[in-house]
Amino acid sequence: MFLIAEEAAAQPGMEGYLVTYGPLVLMFVVLYFLLIRPQQKRQKTRNSMLGNLKKGDKIVTIGGLHGTILEINDETVILRVNDVTKLTFDRSAINSVTASATTAEEKK
After folding, report:
1. Which GO CC annotations does the UniProt entry carry (predicted)?
2. Yes or no: domain 54-107 corresponds to CATH 2.30.30.30
3. 20-73: per-residue pLDDT in tens?
4. CA distance 46 to 81
5. Of 72, 67, 58, 64, whose CA–CA distance to 103 is shortest?
6. Mean pLDDT of the chain
7. Are 70 and 55 in contact (CB under 8 A)?
């Protein structure tokens, strides 16, 4: 093993570059598959969830508030929390959809 490393260090060819830069490339590939790629997938699913919101969806905000969407536009959402209370939130404050409008209509 030691003899192979000496030969690779003595030869300035492709093997020298592989020994020098190989671990860096390997670390980048591992970081990509463990950190970057999963984050991109989560961001893509969140963006599609926010894009598919519609009136009547039951949602949960980042703060944990449960409500039903009364009105929605590009940046804000008006939620009905109970029979009287209506609150306005940014669209980005929505954490998850608990029931879509079509699912709620089918249950009735």
Report:
1. plasma membrane
2. yes
3. 888 999 999 999 999 999 999 999 999 999 999 999 999 999 999 999 999 999
4. 23
5. 58
6. 86
7. yes
Range list for CATH 2.30.30.30 in the chain: 54-107
- On the CB side of 55, CA atoms within 13 Å amount to 4
Q: Within 10 A of 62 (CB to CB), how many other CB atoms are there?
A: 12
* Inter-CA distances, 38 with 4, 31, 33, 43, 72, Å: 38, 10, 7, 9, 29
Residue given tokens 């919101």 in the structure block: 53
Instruction: Read off the amino acid at residue 3.
Output: L
Note the Cα 56 to chain centre separation in Å: 24
Query: Is the Cβ–Cβ distance between 54 and 104 less than 8 Å?
Result: no
